[in-house]
Protein: Selenocysteine lyase/Cysteine desulfurase
Amino acid sequence: DPACSEPLAVLGRDVRVPLVTGGEVTYAALDYAASAPALQRVWDDVAAYAPYYGSVHRGAGYLSQLSTDLFENARRTVEEFLDCRDGDQVVFTRSTTDSLNLLAQAIPADCQVFVFETEHHASLLPWRDARVTYLNAPRTPQEAVRTLEHALADRDPYGPALVCVTGASNVTGELWPVRELAAAAHAHGARIVLDAAQLAPHHPVSVRELDVDWVAFSGHKLYAPFGSGVLAGRADWLQEAEPYLAGGGASKSVARRTDGGVDVEWHTTAARHEAGSPNVIGAYSIASACKALTEAGFDSLVAREQQLIARVRAGLAEVPEVKVLSLFGDDAPRVGVISFVVEGWNSSHFAAALSAEYGIGVRDGLFCAHPLVRTLLGSDPQEQGECGAPEAAPGEKSLNAIRVSFGAGTPDEHVERFVGAVK
Ligand code: PMP
Structure:
């Protein structure tokens, strides 16, 4: 019975970790933006399925058929979760990074790509074989739309174009004006892909309402940490492209030619890009998380998260040495992802102390968004800071930051412990 007491209960709430000061404490997982804990419901569903696990799309046996059904039903569940259009395809991948790389190799050869420099590297880098225009960091959502419109107005209007944008920043937690950016893209004949890695775990994502052409997200940030991700959206470019991986499952028919070569007919369904034995547990667990989130509804999740955001921000505001990083300002709508620096502290040491002395797990660094974090810190764009950043002396700029992030199942105590520890 997966409908246990709390629909969005997560695993790991009673894990004890040692403290450097002696003794132990329950672990406060405040790094949801990197990987969220598994939902109890996801774990229960996976455990219930495990004895029936079988090969997908291959076997004639009962369990193979069952696994194939579960895998294909998972696709339909994700389709519903994302409110896809008729004809959209859901491709199961390894992660958001994998999904965006898949799309990058499926775009037409003459495609122009537009991407803000503020993106996570997963959205920033896969397009490097295409003609890419990197857009400067906007300081308001309106400026983001204007910047994109200007860039698109200058483009070759006859060629294909793609805009890649994140729904919620993995650094500031701020929401981007996706619907407006999609409208601007379409008005200029471009398409748009939404990096929903940080948005989907916190907000409903409707492909139809946002009017985006593709969406990518990761299971491990959506409470389903079993190595799976999703690329969903328009079928045409995906089905005209070479398969992402060549191999069994993607190929419908392979035949030797009389000249000695091989002719391949590739599938035109999602299977075209899913060669090899698929990660059925990963897909199944994503579907389980989608169902749990849909059944629980996002309203209470969002309301609870906004309370936690307010508490963390108020707590941090009481510490004069703390500077919270923000692109769009204090009033911008945001999800539970907050990055900050502490004057006079090396962020890596600070994060290490939160772990060793308080049992709190956060992240430090440049969060795979180097240009954005360097802009927010006002540091040299070329500066190194991800690992082993030198100690920032009092009064000097930090070269990296600390990020705290949370979501379903985060208890007040974790947030209170964090605020107390920072103080
Ligand atoms: N985009 C954003 C906004 C992210 O936060 C992340 C993960 N930090 C990714 C893409 C990449 O996700 P994954 O590591 O699961 O591929």
In short: The pocket of 4'-deoxy-4'-aminopyridoxal-5'-phosphate is lined by residues 33, 95-97, 120, 122-123, 166, 170, 195, 197-198, 218, 368 (CB under 6 Å).
